[in-house]
Each structure stands twice: as C-alpha cells, then as structure tokens.
Write a structure and sequence with these properties.
The complex is a heterodimer of chains A (about 200) and B (about 45). Chain A is α/β, with parallel strands linked by helices. Chain A has 9 helices and 5 strands, in the order ααααβαβαββαβαα. In chain A, strands 3-2-1-4-5 form a 5-stranded parallel β-sheet. The longest helix of chain A has 17 residues. Chain B has a two-stranded antiparallel sheet. The chains are: A alpha/beta (about 200), B alpha+beta (about 45). Chains A and B meet through helix 7 and strand 5 of A and strand 2 of B.
Chain lengths: ~200, ~45
C-alpha cells in the first residue's frame, strides 16, 4: 500500500524525471555518478561491444553495474529493459541476442525515448523497440520475455514489490531477471529515506 | 525481497565501486554504497 511507503511515488517519479531529463539533454554535464563510455568501462562492460557503438548510444548511459556479468543473453532471446534510458543496455543486448532476438526498452522519459529511438534507427536495429511506461506497469504482455534486464532503476522505485511483481508477470516461466542496482552496507536514517530530494542525490 | 516476489535461484555478484571518482563518492562511502549485479529466475 502506498501509505506504507517512505515517499510519495508520484513525487519521487517527478524528482527522477528531473534528474535524468538532464542526463538525456546534457550527458556530459556534472552528475553525482559517472556517465557514458567512462561509466561503461568502470562497470566492466565488454570493451569491444561498447567501442562499436556510436556516441549517441553510450553518452547518456548512467548504470551502476553490469547486468550481463552473471549471465550473458542467449541468441534469439526476447528481452525487456525496465528503465531503458537512452538505450545503451538495449543496444548491448541486441548484440548478444542477434537478429532473431527482440528487445523492448521501457522508459517513462520522453527525452530518453526520443534519443533511444533515433539511435536504434541510426544503428539499423529493427528488433529493438522503445515503449513509454513505468516499471510498476510495464507495457508488455504476460510471459513475453525470456529475460528482463534493468540497471540502476529499481532503487528509484518507491514500491519495489510492485516493480518486481510486474517483472515477474512479463517473464515466461523459467525466464531470467538480471539486473544491476546499488545497495548500502550501512543503514540510511529514516529521515533521509523520507526525503525525496535525497533519493537521487 | 526477490524471493518474496516469487523468484528463485537468486545470486548476487561482486560489488562494483560505482561512484569512485564521481562527485557522489562521499555519500557513497558514508553509507557503503556499491553497485551489484543480481540474477534470479522465475520458477518454470
């Protein structure tokens, strides 16, 4: 129930939109996290796959770890990227699943979606599609995906139980959730958890 | 939380010092924040 959540989901969503809209528009700006090729190298992405991508595919990447490190995607798999941003992980996924596979990137930010679609078109990727939506209401049919990927996004959802429920819904039985996210070793004070501004700080 | 959501075979990978060298490094150090890869499977 929303009343049990530390922050208002809608307020948090607006804060997240404000931060990542800037990452889409001004990817080389100053953020509290690394972006682009520097971030991809730090997080251990396969260098040869990243190098062959155009700058537009990489520059707004703001992930926190590598969702492919524990399980590479398999040729022909159908993949959902929950919180796809400008599409970097979708383009990484496309190189792994090949032309017989399919990728659906979901994001709530129009600026990210426009950038991702333009890049997919420029890269000639016909099996990568981007849809507007929320993690809490993924615009994907039940059981469609062989794998769901996500990177640094679930921690920004106020109600993670709903997000994980949606991911489970769109996965086929036996399908894989492989995501990257942050976790803290020391507890964050309750007062900080209730402060929306600090969720993206 | 993943198991509560109905996932099985949950694995957590090695931590990544995500914020090292970025302006968020100070806060990350304060709360020991690292990035992790996670893997889980929906029961078949």
């Amino acid at each position: 129930m929303a009343s049990e959540l530390p922050v208002n989901p809608a307020a948090l969503r607006e804060e997240v939109k404000s931060k990542y809209r800037e990452v889409a528009r001004n990817p080389h700006g100053e953020f509290h996290f690394h972006t682009g090729r520097r971030a991809a190298a730090r997080l251990g992405y396969e260098r040869t796959l990243v190098e062959r991508m155009p700058d537009a595919a990489v520059e707004s990447f703001a992930g926190v770890a590598n969702p492919f490190s524990l399980r590479p995607l398999q040729p022909g798999e159908k993949v959902v990227d929950a919180g796809a941003g400008a599409g970097f992980d979708c383009f990484m996924a496309a190189q792994q699943v090949g032309p017989q596979g399919a990728i659906v990137g979901v994001d709530m930010l129009d600026e990210m979606l426009r950038k991702a679609r333009a890049t997919a078109h420029a890269m000639g990727l016909r099996n990568v599609e981007f849809r507007e939506g929320l993690l809490e209401a993924l615009p994907v049919d039940d059981g469609w995906a062989d794998a769901v990927i996500s990177n640094g996004v679930i921690n920004l959802c106020a109600d993670k139980r709903v997000a994980f429920g949606e991911i489970r819904r769109v996965l086929r039985p036996g399908g894989w959730l492989q995501f990257a996210d942050i976790a803290n070793g020391k507890p964050v004070p309750a007062s900080a958890l209730r402060n929306v501004d600090l969720w993206t700080a | 939380m993943l198991q509560q959501a109905g996932f099985v075979d949950v694995r957590v990978g090695e931590p990544c010092d995500t914020f090292a060298g970025a302006s968020g490094e100070g806060k990350a150090r304060l709360f020991e924040v690292y990035g992790y890869p996670f893997l889980a499977r929906k029961p078949g």
